[in-house]
Write a sequence for this structure.
C-alpha cells in the first residue's frame, strides 16, 4: 500500500485527478454554452468539446508517466510494465467516467449529433497516440504528437467542410484519418481508436517512457 | 551574439521549424487555396496561418521557458553575473526567429501563388508585418506562462488554449443582413487577435497595419520586461503603447476594413450570355466566359435562363437581388474562374440550388429536388455525405437519386419543359407544387 501511495505521488496523480475534474467542468460548461454561441452552426456546435477535451485529458494522463527518478526505478526489482499498464488503464477508466457524463442531452436536430460514446472513443484514441509518443520521445514530450495531429486535423477538416463540394467529400475508408471528428456509430473510428490504445499501452509498457534528459 | 548562435542551433526551437513550415503550407494549400487569386486573399491567408502557427509558437516558448527549472539549473544561473533579462531574451529569441523564418517561407509561397493570378493591387506588407509582430507577442506570452507555471501540462494546455481562443474569435458569429448594403460591426476583439480576414472586395484602413504592429510589439515587450527586467515598472511604457494602440482598434473596428470599389468594378465580355467578372479578376475573363458558355449549352431551350452571368460581390451585405431572371451571379473564387468543373458546380448551385431553405426545411421531397437536379446537371450521382462529418439521411438520398434518375431518362423536350417549371417554382419558393419528374 505504501508503495502504491509513493508511486501515485511520484507521478503526480493527485494533481492529474484535479486537472481531469477541472477539464470535466470546462467540458460541461462549453457543451452548454456553444450551442447558444453558434445557433446557426450547420452541424453539432459541440465539436470542439468532443475533440479537444479528450485530447487534453489524454495529454494529462500520458505526461503523468514521467518518472522523477528513472535510474533509481531501474534498480527496484518490480515488474514496472504492470504498473504502467494499470496506471494508464486506471486513469482511462477514471477520466472516461468523468467525461462520459458530459454530453447527456441532444442538441438541435442534427443528422449526426455527438454523444458520450464519442468522448470516450476520442479519449481512448488520443491516449493510445500519446502513449505511443511517450514510448518514442518520452512522456514529458508525449503531448506533442496528439496535440499536433489533433489540431492540424481539426483545422483541415473544418476547412474542407467549407471548401469541398459534396461530391468530393471523402467516403468510406478515406475518412479514416479524421476518426476523432466522426459522429457516433461510425465503427471504423472505434476500430482506429482501439488499435491506437492497444498499440500505445503495449509499447509504453514494454519500452517504458524514454528518460527525460 | 555567440550565445544566440548557440541557442539557435540547439534546443527545442530548432525542432519547431519544420513543424511551423508544415503548418504554414498546410493552411496555404489546404484551407482556401483559392484565396491566393487576389492580394487581399493572400494577406488574409497569411494571417489565418497563425491559427496553426500560434499554438505551436506558444507551446514551444512555454516549453523553452521551463528548461532551466526542469534541469535544476535555475539557482545556478541566477548566481551568474548576467542580467536576467539577457537570459530570458536569449531563450525567447530563437523561438521567435525560427517562427519568423517559417512565416517568411509562407510569405514567399503566397507571393509565388498569387502573383501570376492577379494584376490588381499588392500584398499589404504592413498587415503581414503585424502578423510577424503577433508571432513575437505569442512567443512572449508562452514564455511568461512557462516561466511562472511549473506544471508539465502547461505547454500543451497553453497551445490548445491559444488554438481555441483564436478559433472562437475568428469564427465568432456576426449577424449579416444580406443585401442591406451595410457591413456589420466586427466582434470587439476582431483586430486584437493574430488572425485577420479581409475579402477581396475590401481594403484595410491606412492605420490598421501600424496600430496592429504597435499593439503586438508593445504587448511582447511588456511581457518580457515584466518577467525579467531589473526595474519591472519599465514594462508600463510598452504596455501603455499597446493600450493606446488597442483603443482605436476596438473603438473604430467598424472602419478598420472598408469596401474597395476599384476591385469590384465589373469587366464584361461581348456576346450571349454576357459574362462579367470583377476588376480584380479581369485577367481571367476569357477563361470564365468560355467555361460558362460551354456549360450553359446543355440548358438551351430552358425558358427564362439568365442572359448575364456576373461574378458576385464577395460581401454578403451587398449581394444583388437575384430574383431577376435575366441575371445570375456566381461566387466561384478567382482561383477557379477558369476551371470549368468548379464553375459548373457553382452555376449549378445558383441555377438549381438552395434558395428556398425555409420552404424546404420540413419537406423531404422538396429538399431532395434541388439535390437531384444538381446531380443531373453535374452528371454525377447524389453524394451520400454532404460534408466531412454530415451525411444525408437515407430517405433524402433516395428522393434525390430518384429525381436524378428520372431526369436522365426523360426525353429532352420534356426535360427542358420540366426544368423551366422547376426554375419558375424555385424563384417563387413554391417547390412543393412541382410535380416529381
Amino acid at each position: 500500500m505504501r508503495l502504491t501511495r509513493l508511486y501515485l505521488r511520484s507521478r503526480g496523480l493527485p494533481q492529474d485527478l484535479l486537472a481531469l475534474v477541472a477539464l470535466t467542468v470546462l467540458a460541461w460548461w462549453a457543451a452548454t454554452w456553444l450551442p447558444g454561441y453558434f445557433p446557426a452552426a450547420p452541424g453539432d456546435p459541440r465539436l470542439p468539446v468532443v475533440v479537444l477535451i479528450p485530447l487534453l485529458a489524454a495529454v494529462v494522463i500520458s505526461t503523468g508517466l514521467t518518472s522523477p527518478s528513472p535510474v533509481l526505478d531501474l534498480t527496484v526489482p518490480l515488474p514496472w510494465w504492470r504498473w504502467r499498464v494499470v496506471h494508464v488503464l486506471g486513469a482511462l477508466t477514471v477520466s472516461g467516467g468523468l467525461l462520459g457524463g458530459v454530453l447527456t442531452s441532444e442538441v438541435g436536430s442534427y443528422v449526426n449529433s455527438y454523444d458520450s460514446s464519442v468522448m470516450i472513443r476520442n479519449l481512448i484514441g488520443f491516449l493510445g497516440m500519446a502513449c505511443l509518443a511517450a514510448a518514442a520521445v518520452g512522456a514529458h514530450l508525449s503531448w506533442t504528437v496528439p496535440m499536433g495531429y489533433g489540431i492540424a486535423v481539426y483545422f483541415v477538416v473544418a476547412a474542407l467542410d467549407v471548401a469541398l463540394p459534396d461530391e468530393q467529400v471523402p467516403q468510406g475508408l478515406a475518412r479514416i484519418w479524421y476518426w476523432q471528428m466522426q459522429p457516433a456509430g461510425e465503427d471504423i473510428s472505434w476500430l482506429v481508436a482501439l488499435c491506437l490504445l492497444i498499440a500505445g499501452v503495449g509499447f509504453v509498457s514494454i519500452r517504458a517512457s524514454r528518460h527525460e534528459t | 551574439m555567440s550565445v544566440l548562435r548557440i541557442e539557435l542551433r540547439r534546443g527545442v526551437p530548432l525542432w519547431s521549424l519544420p513543424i511551423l513550415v508544415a503548418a504554414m503550407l498546410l493552411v496555404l494549400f489546404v484551407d482556401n487555396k483559392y484565396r491566393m487569386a487576389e492580394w487581399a486573399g493572400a494577406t488574409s491567408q497569411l494571417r489565418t496561418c497563425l491559427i496553426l502557427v500560434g499554438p505551436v509558437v506558444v507551446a514551444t516558448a512555454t516549453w523553452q521557458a521551463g528548461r532551466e527549472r526542469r534541469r535544476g539549473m535555475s539557482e545556478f544561473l541566477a548566481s551568474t553575473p548576467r542580467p536576467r533579462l539577457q537570459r530570458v531574451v536569449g531563450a525567447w529569441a530563437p523561438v521567435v526567429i525560427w517562427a519568423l523564418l517559417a512565416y517568411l517561407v509562407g510569405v514567399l509561397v503566397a507571393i509565388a501563388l498569387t502573383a501570376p493570378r492577379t494584376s490588381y493591387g499588392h500584398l499589404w506588407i504592413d498587415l503581414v508585418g503585424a502578423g510577424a509582430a503577433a508571432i513575437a507577442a505569442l512567443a512572449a506570452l508562452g514564455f511568461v506562462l512557462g516561466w511562472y507555471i511549473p506544471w508539465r501540462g502547461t505547454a500543451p494546455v497553453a497551445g490548445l488554449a491559444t488554438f481555441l481562443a483564436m478559433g472562437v474569435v475568428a469564427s465568432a458569429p456576426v449577424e449579416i443582413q444580406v443585401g442591406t448594403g451595410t457591413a456589420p460591426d466586427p466582434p470587439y476583439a476582431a483586430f486584437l487577435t493574430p488572425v485577420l480576414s479581409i475579402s477581396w472586395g475590401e481594403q484595410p484602413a491606412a492605420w490598421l497595419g501600424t496600430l496592429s504592429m504597435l499593439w503586438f510589439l508593445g504587448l511582447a515587450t511588456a511581457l518580457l520586461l515584466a518577467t525579467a527586467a531589473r526595474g519591472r515598472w519599465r514594462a508600463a511604457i510598452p504596455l501603455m503603447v499597446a493600450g493606446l494602440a488597442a483603443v482605436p482598434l476596438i473603438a473604430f473596428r467598424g472602419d478598420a476594413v472598408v469596401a474597395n470599389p476599384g476591385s469590384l468594378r465589373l469587366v464584361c465580355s461581348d456576346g450571349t450570355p454576357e459574362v462579367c467578372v470583377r476588376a480584380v479578376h479581369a485577367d481571367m475573363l476569357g477563361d470564365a466566359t468560355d467555361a460558362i458558355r460551354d456549360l450553359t449549352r446543355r440548358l438551351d431551350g430552358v425558358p427564362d435562363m439568365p442572359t448575364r452571368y456576373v461574378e458576385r460581390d464577395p460581401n454578403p451585405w451587398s449581394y444583388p437581388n437575384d430574383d431577376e431572371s435575366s441575371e445570375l451571379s456566381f461566387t466561384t473564387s478567382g482561383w477557379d474562374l477558369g476551371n470549368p468543373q468548379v464553375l459548373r458546380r457553382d452555376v449549378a448551385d445558383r441555377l438549381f440550388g438552395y434558395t428556398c431553405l425555409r420552404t424546404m426545411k420540413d419537406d423531404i421531397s422538396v429538399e431532395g429536388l434541388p439535390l437531384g437536379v444538381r446531380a443531373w446537371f453535374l452528371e454525377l450521382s447524389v453524394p451520400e455525405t454532404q460534408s466531412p462529418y454530415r451525411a444525408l439521411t437515407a430517405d433524402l438520398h433516395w428522393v434525390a437519386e430518384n429525381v436524378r434518375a428520372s431526369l436522365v431518362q426523360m426525353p429532352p423536350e420534356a426535360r427542358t419543359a420540366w426544368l423551366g417549371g422547376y426554375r419558375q417554382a424555385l424563384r417563387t419558393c413554391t417547390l412543393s407544387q412541382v410535380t416529381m419528374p
In short: Chain B is about 55% helix and 5% strand. Residues 361 and 367 of chain B are 7 Å apart (CA to CA). The radius of gyration of chain B is 27 Å.
